[in-house]
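Input for the complex:
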Amino acid sequence: MSRRLGISLGVLAIVLAGVSILGARGQLSWLAGALAGKTANAETWSAPRTAWGDPDLQGIYNYGTSTPLQRPRQVADKQVLSDEEATKLQSDLAYRLDRDRRDGGAQADVSRSYNDAWMDPHRKTLTADKRTSLIVDPPDGRIPARVERKLTPEQEKARVEADLSTRRFNTGFQESYKDMDVGNRCIIRRRNEGGGHPYLPAIYNNMAQIFQAPGYVVIYAEMIHFARIIPVDGRPALPDNVETWLGDPRGHWEGNTLVVETRNFISPDEVGRTGVVYGNANPKTYRIVERFTRVGPETVNYEVTLSDPETWTRPFTIMVPWNKTNEQIYEYQCQELNYDMYHWLAGAREREKRGEKFNPNAPDARGDDGVE
Amino acid sequence: MRTRSNAVIAVTVAAGAFAAIWLAMRVQGPAVAQVTTPGRFPAYTPARTADGKPDLNGIWQSLTTANWDLEAHGAGAGAYPQLLGAWGAQPGGQSVIVGGTIPYRPEALARRKANFATRTTASVPGDGVDPPTGDPELKCWMTGVPRMMYMPYPLQIVQTPDAVLITQEFNGNTRIVRMNWPEETPVDNTFFMGWNRGRWDGDTLVIDVTGLSDKNWLDRVGNYLSDTAHVTERLTLVSPYHIAYEATIEDPRVFSRPWTIRFPLYRRMESDVQLMEFKCQPFVEELVYGRFTKKPST
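Predicted:
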C-alpha cells in the first residue's frame, strides 16, 4: 500500500514536470498556469534514448482512469480540481462505477452481473493532475459541436437503416452479425472506446506495451490483441485505395515526442452499421494526430488531436497519461471464445419461433447509436 | 597395399570421429549446432543489436506448404472446387518434419481423422461442440505456435533485451516472448499463442512455449497438439537474409516421442515492405454465423 502511494506521488511529480514541458509548447498553457506553483518541486530529469538514438518510450502501461472524457456539467467552471474536490469527485465516481453495489433493485443488479472482478481498478482513479476532463482543448473540456449536415437521400437511407439495426440490437432481435457493433464482432474496440485509436480508457484491458527497434515503434494493445506497427523511417503512406479497420500509421520524432499520423481508414458502408473512426466521422476527411511523450520514468503522456471539418466545428485534443505498470499483458481471446454472438443470434431466432415480434419503438429500443 | 590400408585406417578414424560427434550431439541434445541443414549455409557471423545479440529484427516469411500439411503431400483440389477452382486448391509439398512423419500415439490418431473430416464445418463458441470443429484458420482464430511461423503470411520480429515481439499478418496473431522469464506460466490458463519464454543459447534465440490451447491445429489437414505440449523453438541467423528455424514438439499425451520441424525463414526484401492489415473476422462471419441469421420469411 505504501509502495503504491509512493508511486502515485512520483507519478504526480512527473506529470507536473510534463505539464511544464507541454505548457511551453502552448498546448496546455492553462493547465501549466494552474499548476505553476507546484512545478518548482519537480526534480531534474532527462528523457532516455534507445541505443540507436530515438527517444525511449518502451514499457508496459495502463491508461485506465475515472477522469471523464468530457467535463461534467457540475464542474463546468473548473479545469483542475483542488485536493479536497478531487478526493470527493474520485470517491463519487468510484461509487457510481462500482459494479459490486447491490442497490437499485433486481434489474440494476442483473445489469451489474459483469461485476467488479472483470473491471480494471484503475478506472476508479482520477488522473494524477486532477483534471476535470481528458479533453484539454477546447478549454471547456467538451467535444466540439457537430457540423450540421444535410444528408443526401442515400445517406438518409443509410442512417435509418443504422438506426433500425441499433434498435434490433437493443431489443434482442438481431437479424445478423451485422446488427452487432464492431466490438461485439471482435474486429476492433467499440468506436466510443476509441476503436483502434485514439486509445481511450474503458472498463477493462487498458493495457499497452511499447516496443522499439531501429525504424519502428510498436504499440501492442491487449484489447483484441493488436500490434500496431508504426514505421518511423520516413517511408510514404499507402495509396488511398488501401482501406483498413485500424488505419495505417506513420510516425516521426519531434524532439522527445513520437508524432503519429494515421490514415487509410475503411469506409462505413463497408462495415455494417458503424464506421470505424471516432465519432462516426468521415474516414476520408478525418485526421488523427497522436503525440507520445515520456515525461518521467513512470509516465508517457498520450495526447491526441482529432479533426474532421465535415463532423466537428473545430479540432479537439485529448490527453491521457499512460502509467507504467508491473502487470503483464495477457492474451485477449475474442472471436475464439465469443459466446455472445451465438447466444444473441440463436436467442433472437428462438424468440421469433415463439412468435415474438421486433418493435422498433419499444422503450428500450433507442440507445447509443454510436454518435458521440 | 600399404597405401590402401592407410586409407582404410583414415576412413575408420574419420568414421569413429563422426560417430563420436554424433554421440556427443545425441547426449547434449539440440544445443549442439544442428540448427541448420548441414552444408546449406556457410558459417556466418550475424549483425548484432546494441546489447550484443544477433539482430533478428525484420520482416520474415516461410516458403513451405506446411500450413496445408506438415507431412509430404501431393497437390489436390480444395474444399469447394465447384466454387473456387484452382484458387482453393492445395499445392503439393515436401515434409518439413525431420524424419518425415509425425509420431502420433495410436489412440491420438482418431482426433486427427475427426479434425480432417470436419475441417470445413465451423462450430461456434457456445454451441457445445467439443473439441470444436473446423480449422481454426478457416474461422479466423489465432493459429498458435508453431503454426504462425509457417503460414503463407509475413511476420515481423521486434527484438528488445527484455522481450521479443513476434507478430504475424494473419489476424494480427502476436506473441510476446519474455526473455529469461523464470516461471513456466504465471496463471493457470492456456493461450492460443502459448506462454513464451526466451533465452539466448550462444547465437540462437531459444523460445520455450507452454500453456498452449488444446484448440490449436497445426495445419489444414487437422494435425494438432494438446495443452500439455512443450514447443522448443530455435531461431538462428545463418545469413543476412535467412533464419534457420526449428521447433521441437514434446507432448506425451499425443505423440510417442518428441519430433522436430525445420525450415528457413526468408527476409522480405522489397523496399518499404510492411505487414498489411488482415482482419479476417469480417471474411468469416457468414461462414461461421450465417446459419443463425434471419432468413427471409417464406
